[in-house]
Amino acid sequence: MKAVAWHGNHDVRVDTVPDPTIEQPTDAIISVTSSGICGSDLHLYEVLGPYLDEGDILGHEPMGIVEEVGAEVSHITPGDRVVIPFNVSCGHCFMCDKGLMSQCETTQVREYDTGAAFLGYTKLYGQVPGGQAEFLRVPQAQFGPIKVPDGPSDDRFLYLSDVLPTAWQAVEYADIPAGGSLLVLGLGPIGEMCCRIAQQRGVEHVMAIDLVPERLERARGHGVQAIDLEEHDDLPALVRDQTDGRGPDSVIDAVGMEAHGAPVGKLAHRLAGLLPDAPAQKMIETAGIDRLSALHMAIELVQRGGTVSLSGVYGGAASPMPLIQMFDKQINMRMGQANVKRWIDDLMPLVTAGDDPLGVETFATHHVPLGEAPNAYETFQKKEDNAFKIILKP
Ligand SMILES: NC(=O)c1ccc[n+]([C@@H]2O[C@H](COP(=O)([O-])OP(=O)(O)OC[C@H]3O[C@@H](n4cnc5c(N)ncnc54)[C@H](O)[C@@H]3O)[C@@H](O)[C@H]2O)c1
Ligand SMILES: [Zn+2]
Ligand SMILES: [Zn+2]
């Protein structure tokens, strides 16, 4: 089959590899009909190379048709249409029972002391072959796959794999009080969807910050007060002006480590990319490769006693945090990978509703054949051609 494989920094290729087969009784094989490229894939494209091997298959936002199931898989059968969560979780361990599927104890990657395995996402998350491919082996398929109805377009359901539950959890964790205000940093797919979900859930005052003009326009198009990072010298003053002088009740950081305006991070990225794997891994783990500008901004802007919800991904252990400011402002913080399956019951009515309240039908800007993935990655990384969300069609 054809699959999108990592070959190095800024180098993904479409390789021909053996078709996957059932390896465990809890596996399923699906033929992939749509597969998203995610902002998280850009971390692999640029930063996390030391944790990948050449040939690793990328992708963690797939959906498709069940081809074959293992002996212990009973809730889906060949021919079913399914969306695959990015978390590989068992559904029956201590953590899954608590709704923390991203911490699943059956698939935790103990070698790196990380949480649940994650499709297509480096050795840190189990090096599970990903879904930007014609076929995918789905581990823990007795629990993971989400059955969806035939009929509506793939785009109706595809985002249940990652974008929707991630944004839903970010809003949930932001703990916005009734009548309160929300500021979202970053208007990529995650930030944009956070705005839509917050509005859908009744938050009237939603502000957002980004620096890509089309993304700001997109958010303004549905009533978000979108602010251009580069147009204002004193963002804190501007934001406070709009929120009774106090700052928003809640801030969601949907930027992550590619944050604009963190030059030290840029250098660290480059250096890590040039080092052999072992020293580069060490550097990422200890030196703090993060570019924390967005997170620091979240802490600075949030109201005293307010909540920062972090969905942007940051790596690195030695990241300096403004602890004194966090303590002084009495800030609450929640974060983590989305627990995908936990939020599906909340989301399913919204993606199936006739009027498409979250706008998933028109969310993607590009649908391209799998064979064009190398180009698509480059376009997405450079934010060219208005690329906002790219869906690969195997
Ligand atoms: N927690 C989870 O489970 C989970 C799931 C999916 C994605 N993510 C993470 O969420 C983050 C966002 O994902 P995405 O797909 O929307 O990515 P993206 O790269 O498309 O979006 C990030 C946006 O932030 C903007 N930005 C950069 N610097 C900024 C700054 N200083 N202030 C404000 N905006 C800034 C960029 O212009 C861009 O529009 C990534 O870090 C991704 O890894 C987390
Ligand atoms: Zn993703
Ligand atoms: Zn589990």
Keywords:
394 residues, alpha/beta, Quinone Oxidoreductase, Chain A, domain 1, Rossmann fold, 2 domains, 7-stranded mixed β-sheet, 6-stranded parallel β-sheet, 13 helices, 15 strands, globular, binds nicotinamide-adenine-dinucleotide, binds zinc ion
How does this model look, in words?
This protein is an alpha/beta fold and 394 residues long. It folds into 2 domains: 2-161 and 339-393, Medium-chain alcohol dehydrogenases, catalytic domain (Quinone Oxidoreductase, Chain A, domain 1, Alpha-Beta Complex); 164-335, Rossmann fold (3-Layer(aba) Sandwich). The chain contains 13 helices and 15 strands. The protein has helices at 39-46, 94-97, 154-157, 163-174, 189-200, 213-220, 235-241, 263-274, 277-288, 293-301, 323-328, 344-352, 373-381; strands at residues 2-8, 11-16, 28-37, 62-69, 81-83, 135-138, 146-147, 181-185, 205-210, 225-228, 250-253, 307-310, 332-335, 366-369, 390-393. Strands 3, 4, 5, 6, 7, 14 and 15 form a 7-stranded mixed beta sheet that branches. Strand 8, helix 5 (189-200) and strand 9 form a beta-alpha-beta unit. The radius of gyration is 20 Å and the shape is globular. The model is unreliable at 260-264 (pLDDT under 50). Residues 89-90, 93, 95-96, 104-106 line the site of one zinc ion. One zinc ion is lined by residues 89-90, 93, 95-96, 104-106.
Q: How are the SSEs placed, and which strands pair?
A:
Layout: E1 2-8, E2 11-16, E3 28-37, H1 39-46, E4 62-69, E5 81-83, H2 94-97, E6 135-138, E7 146-147, H3 154-157, H4 163-174, E8 181-185, H5 189-200, E9 205-210, H6 213-220, E10 225-228, H7 235-241, E11 250-253, H8 263-274, H9 277-288, H10 293-301, E12 307-310, H11 323-328, E13 332-335, H12 344-352, E14 366-369, H13 373-381, E15 390-393
Parallel strand pairs: 8-9, 8-11, 9-10, 11-12, 12-13, 14-15
Antiparallel strand pairs: 1-2, 3-4, 3-6, 3-15, 4-5, 5-7
The chain binds nicotinamide-adenine-dinucleotide and zinc ion (2 copies).
